[in-house]
Amino acid sequence: MTSAAVWLAASFTACAVWLWTTPAVAITRLTRLTAPPRSRRPRRRHLRELLAAYRGPKRRAEAWRLASIELCQALSAELCAGRPPGEALTRAMAAVDLPDPDLLRPVEAAARNGGDVPAALVTAAPRQGGDGLRRLAACWQVSTSAGAGLATLVERVAVTLRTTQAHRQDVAAQLAGPRTTARMLAVLPVLGLLMAAALNMHPLRFLLGGLPGLACLATGITLNACGLWWTSRMSNQAEG
Question: What's the rounded Cα separation, in Å, for the pair 120 and 106?
Fold first, then answer.
């Protein structure tokens, strides 16, 4: 056995040990969900780090969903303490670490000056992840037009948002396994090429040396890309 084959076998063994000893993604998510609640400061720092590390639309929407839940909870607590709606909203916004505070400056100004808070909330709500703010605007509109209790409506919205978020996290945890499996299967052809090269079979010479090899390479890459795209499409549809 050549040194390259020995090195390749050792690498595969190390990868197998790491996959065997590492806890599953679902177990990790379940541990986080069932862990004791932390103080507000670490939670706020986590939101800031989440938005700073991942600037993608999905991560930004997730940060806004979490911030909307915290905002509704803080607003409900302020209203139950007997504060007026405008002051309660201002204090709640100051207590929550929003992903983009400048986006809600018009809402804060409307709450301080007695302006149209529902319209400001709808305008400021981001396209992705802003469902909580739009629901809060609807609650505010109903409470001012029909005289319903704003604290009760906001608390119901907070409960609905928490339930939806828990369901979304559960679906994401269940989809983590198929996504990981699809990625591992996509890498298997590369591992096959490495094993063939370690056995002195010269796979690249065949794949790049003539028309049949190029046809096989193009077909394999196309099928691999289609498989990844189809798996990602099904996962996104299930998660949506």
Answer: 6
